[in-house]
């Protein structure tokens, strides 16, 4: 028959349970074996790194009752992972994981040129695919009236058009006025070219240079900045690579593109 001996250890000598404390950055604790006192700067699997007031770092194992917090024993544990923030698209919208592209709507968004279309795709592409909106480019606005007439926008086929340098009294402004209707919306930004809608700081320049009237704007910009002026297409691709999200674009463009997406998607399935 197995014999059991009573526990005669006095209560004050028994090991009492101690609280578990997350090793959050900035928490100040002491390692009693060494007397090292410092703030938590890092907590990894099985270890914690402390930094004392002199900037010295020490790494200690995460052991039960291994530290003192305000003079009392505690067991440090790894902090719980922070709730993951919703992923965002380049436009700043909440990403929809696993979302499939919607069948294309009858409605469309037209932009002036290839560079405009590539920039819109870079920043708003995910949103446009979910909404089923196709973006096409016009290669200028001179023929916009006939293009709009052939498209024949209606309640279930709205047409949104983004125009460069849309300022009152300009040629672009007059053409825009002539095609605007209940189901065709023309909006624009004040920039001579879509390049200018990219924030200069994104490209490491102080500002977009002024180009004399009558001179090709892209060529003039490249010459002023010391970029290759004989291949503006390659320069644009280099610019486009520096654009990571809507934060790299000017607000005057952001608002207009969002307005067009809302207009086209608000006219039916």
From TrEMBL:
Q: Which residues form the DUF3097 domain?
A: 20-79, 108-265
Give the region (Disordered) as residue ranges: 1-26
InterPro entries under this entry? DUF3097_C (IPR021447), DUF3097_N (IPR053883)
User: Short name of one Pfam family for this protein?
Assistant: DUF3097_N
Q: What is this protein called?
A: DUF3097 domain-containing protein
Q: Which organism is it from?
A: Streptomyces misionensis
